[in-house]
Amino acid sequence: MRKPIRALLLCLPLALAAVSVADAKVGDAAPAFTLTDTNGKQHSLGDFKGKVVVLEWFNHDCPFVKKHYDSGNMPGLQTRYTETDVVWLSINSSAPGKQGNYAPEKANEMSKEKKSAASYVLLDPDGTVGKLYGAKTTPHMYVIDGAGVLRYEGAIDSVSSTDQDDIKGATNYVASAIDALKAGKPVDPSVTQAYGCGVKY
Known about the structure:
Blueprint: H1 3-18, E1 34-37, E2 42-44, E3 53-57, H2 63-70, H3 73-82, E4 87-92, H4 104-113, E5 120-123, H5 128-133, E6 137-138, E7 140-144, E8 150-154, H6 173-182, E9 197-198
Parallel strand pairs: 3-4, 4-5
Antiparallel strand pairs: 1-2, 1-5, 3-7, 6-9, 7-8
């Protein structure tokens, strides 16, 4: 057997073992996690039992994220729902040296500039939680009910673009999901195709 081929075959099991499968599935309990926020405080998903929780994967350098922040759409949603006792967790899974990874102080500065109204901005630089949830894009949205069950996963809305003008005519899936949960109704749709920049793991 040629050495390069043999080496490839020897590495194959390790490569396969490194491939992780997301544990987050709509209708199942949302995977537990603990992350540190940009102020150095730890937060666990279990801390928010009994409340609707939104997970928002973001990267402020991504044009799709800029669309929703610069237009005021994302901060508006955050304000609208956190005022009704929803917990909004913005999660940054950009790895060190990759686009969107900033020191906590700079991250706080950027969140202030973008007028973020998230409950907490959490840092996931090793990508553990992002991969646990299968987060692929920024933004990638998840809505968890008060019992800790994942009820929505996918895009923020129905129009995949970086154009702020498209927001007005789009169906906001996150708002629809939260409103349905608060009204005791099924979330429909419960899964959509997320769009945006790839998470910079």
